[in-house]
Amino acid sequence: MLWPMEDEDRPHALASGRKDAAASLSLESLEPYSIDELDARVILLEAEIARVRAHKARSAANRLAAEALFRTPHLPGPSSSGPTPSGATS
Question: N or C end of the chain, less CB within 10 A?
Fold first, then answer.
């Protein structure tokens, strides 16, 4: 006989402390589901994982683009080997 997942083994909340749908699903008993229903559930959950990963990739790309847009260009400082002011000797 298989034993149900212990509470400490189940996902409870996101790192932010906010509960989400995945955490809520983990609280549901799987006992009443048939093998076919469990297979269908796995397919749906795998599709959701793919959707979340795609959104994460788009978010990361957007963040990199925003950081590149607002990044301050590095200007040469006084210790650089750039041109010296007129009348100055190095």
Answer: N
Distances 60 to 9, 49, 55, 63, 67 between C-alpha atoms, Å: 29, 16, 9, 5, 10
Residue 21's H or E segment, with its range, is helix 21-26
Q: Mind listing the pLDDT tens digit for each residue in 59-88?
A: 999 999 999 988 877 667 666 555 555 655
